[in-house]
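the two lines:
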Amino acid sequence: EDKVVQSPLSLVVHEGDTVTLNCSYEVTNFRSLLWYKQEKKAPTFLFMLTSSGIEKKSGRLSSILDKKELFSILNITATQTGDSAVYLCAVDFGNEKLTFGTGTRLTIIP
Amino acid sequence: GAVVSQHPSWVICKSGTSVKIECRSLDFQATTMFWYRQFPKQSLMLMATSNEGSKATYEQGVEKDKFLINHASLTLSTLTVTSAHPEDSSFYICSARDLASGSETQYFGPGTRLLVL
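prediction for all of em together
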């Protein structure tokens, strides 16, 4: 069965710290892996990864995929209170549907 | 990025009534839209895939007679929760892909919070 697992489930850090969020998956087929940020409403798109080893970067956020070891990480440097959210990892297992992980709840303390 | 809207954003209704939620792609055409449900502190669970001009495909465990989906045009899909009960209270979110852009990214609507009393 296709599965997406995120860790940690929750994380509390101080403003300015760097965090690394993990997403691993078990898959019979793989098309892409996506990261979303969810605050109070629906998820907003961060990154889509399809190839191993190519880092995607947007400001203080970056992400990379390892298709051999079946995982991805999302890094946030110099965290700010506005980064507090639930970060969701989702995988497209080749059928255009997204399977979501449980999410990591990130809290940034001022 | 592509914009997806949902209406209404909030619904409170009595048990036994039906509730219709609209999902629109505002600046692109979407032959396929997806409906998700999210319970508090849980992740998104795909309910069904809405296909323009044909029947929706439901995930295992989702009752198609209870959650009616209509995708009548390339920019609009509707989800009707029929005879809603308190256990249907949840956050319902739709998403769509902008196929014309060549991107496989799914863009989400702002969601609809349903509270059934």
